[in-house]
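Re-running the complex after MR caught last week's input typo. The corrected sequence lines follow. Everything else is unchanged.
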Amino acid sequence: MSDMDMDRRNFLKTSVGAAAVAIAPGMMLYSVAQGKSEGASSRVRWGMLIDTNQCKPGCNDCVTACNRENGLPGETKATDSQWIRKIEIKDISSGREISLPMMCQHCENPPCVDVCPTNASMKRADGIVLVDKHRCIGCRYCMMACPYKARSFVHEPQHDQNPDVPRGKGTVESCTLCVHRIDVGGKPACSEACPNQAIIFGDLNDENSEIAQKVRSVASVQVRADLRLNPGVRYQGI
Amino acid sequence: MSTPTLESLHFKNRLYWLLLAAGGLVATAGMYAVHLMEHHGHIITGMDNQIVWGLPHVFAIFLIVAASGVLNVASIGSVFGKAIYKARAPLASLLSIAMLMGGLTVLMLDLGRPDRIIVAATNYNLTSVFAWNVLLYSGMVGLVVVYLWTMMERRMNPYNKIAGIGVFVWRFVLTTGTGLIFAFLTARQAYGSALLPPMFIVLSFAWGMAVFHLVQTSIYMWNEKEIDPSILARKKHLLGVFVLGSMYMVATYHLTNAYFSQQQGFERFILLDGGIYPGLFWWGYIVLGNIVPLALLYAPGIQRDRWAALASLLIILGGFALLYVFIIGGQAWPLNLFPGYEVSSTFADGQISAYSPSIYEFLLGLGGLSIAFLITTVSVRVLNFMPQDKPYIAD
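Corrected-run output:
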């Protein structure tokens, strides 16, 4: 074998090795970012049951957890995003006061999806309502259509984002039900953070799940049930 | 008519370039505002997560609604065969295209991501009235261009009637689509009414006619001619009827709302104690935009076209006032998430939202107006859009 052949072989070996070293981390990251390979299942309907009797006025733990999980600054100016907020309500006739978290209600018939011109607002097969950040043109029609005021528009350039939850100036965003956690078997940050376990998360279609059993046994309501949107989030104690 | 002198022609030539420069300057200022909004985000506007549509939408919707209504002049000519309207159909078509272009530019440049306009053009959600409108607006421009062609190219004249009917139908559908943007908003008390599309159609008649009249008066003045008094009288009367019709629709919308107890709080806010909104509604829209113009149009003794032009200007300003109340006042009123409860939160639940438009939104809106102005001015200069009336008008 000539010296020239050896040189060629060594060169090829080195090149392949260098290419592998260069590409491998990217491939690893790609597979991590992909999450689960299979799509969402329509047999599942993710939802939440919120017990307002357990929700304490002044407690903001769910909001703080959401902000931390999704890389939101947590400020409350009119131009800041608020994916979840605490609402204090007071019955005008009886004076009874209730505190509760409000976020995207993940409707079965979401008005935001109906009105979105580009299909950027979409509902996954498992009932989670999301915004495709690459398709959103920032027309804000979904914000006009949402009865729960659950959506926010990103008014400023974003820095130091959470890689799992990309956000973009000029697009609309809202609670994703922490889809990045759900897809790897976790549950939403707000549900996990509630000190009184007031937010039960689970599959409404699975009759053995805690949430399905609870929905069967306790009285719960959907906010603005008159609109017939069938939200996946239900409230107990209103 | 005075004979044009060399001096007067020189003066007009200079004036024309001056007008173009002024329009270009405003359009450039609008583009600069868009650049800043693109760079900094909508944070520099007065819009926020409560008032999501602001002043740009007032300008854009006025222009689009008036663009549809101005075609009334063309339809009365082509569809119903009235000669004095037929002579004005080319000018009406030109104004329609100009205002559509201006309005659509504002709508497009107010998007959070105007760079993704290709996404809007290639992804259609068939349940979205916005997606329908993308087709309706662009189709309208195309159809009116064809319609103009059938009028201005003699060989195409035989197709004028069919093109005119096409435009007539299309513009009704288009304004219905614009009204439906709001009519489909089920949860907001200001909107979600089937009355809105017909209301927008009748408003379009008045606003379009007012714009037409204003431009027509300017063109006659430029050419040192006076509009035939009998033609002026007919057009003034038609404009008056449209103004009365639009007032009827707006009154019906508010009175039916006021009858439903769940809507009374909102109506009280818009019509009585909502700060700027009742003021704009009563003084801006009703008095300055309707009552005064009606007086100017119908009062005996003031027959000159300048008074009709002033009435038209007031109708246009009244239209802006009404849209401001409708679009911004409608969002300022809080969503009713928990009927029967007092509500408060960090996200303005249960509160009236404040809005003060920034200079950038204003410049963007004016930029749209200036685009319509530039298209009209250049076209009127280079092509013959001056109405050519026959000596004897049979109808």
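None of the earlier attempt is carried over here. The longest helix of chain A spans residues 3-34. The longest strand of chain A covers residues 84-91.
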